[in-house]
Amino acid sequence: MIDRTKNIALVTGASSGIGLVTAQTLVKAGYRVYGTSRKQVAGKPGITMLICDVTDKASVEAMIAEIMQQVGRIDLVVNNAGIGLLGGAEESSIDQAQRLFDVNLFGVARVVNAVLPIMRKQKSGRIVNMSSILGLIPSPYNAFYASTKHAIEGYSESLDHEVRNFGIRVVLVQPGVTKTSFEENLTRVDQPLPVYDSERTRSEALMRKWMEAGDAPEVVADMVVKAATAKKPKLRYSAGKQSRQVRSLRRFLPERLVDSLLRKVNEFPASV
Predict the structure, then answer these.
(1) Which UniProt keywords apply (predicted)?
(2) The whole model's pTM is what?
């Protein structure tokens, strides 16, 4: 029998990594949780897994309809589904860049558009969009990925103002580098150029090193719960020490100094 006293949460991209840990943490926080994946996977205790391709409007709408048929409401949406892209900006075709945006930005918009009528009718709802520190700063050899996260920032902040009058809030969680499988959801450039080979390889090795020292997914999941349950939510939630540092760096330091620090962190030669 379904417990209709529990709030209903939907977490996209919940088959592994941050999405799975977030779904599990929401279960512990008292939510009835639905997760999505592109292929059928077995659900963990307390999590009902549904198939959904966020790049397909019909797939998104069918997934939402299934939840509504089962429980009749959706109180929380965590838009976590996303993919990465490693390589020089010049090394990606426009088609590849568009596919990245189709998942990371327009995939979020498809889910949001499907749940907003439900939340308006309920006169309540919380939407948590997964951003990144790369929504705040540039990242060499992650140019298009960083662009999608910058776009999520602008989309979410604008949307939040549009839906507040309906009792709905939209908030952002900004993880730093997180310990997940490096290969998980990572795409590589489709038109690699020899001129970038050495720097691309170096950047990939650097990313692996950062991930080994990164935050545990639980750090992000705990911040999602905080963002989901706050009575007066903030617009942005920094998940972890690195995220807080980057946000302060971007906010308070002069642009020229930020530029210099980013080159240092990415192990580039100092600017001339």
Answers:
(1) Oxidoreductase
(2) 0.93
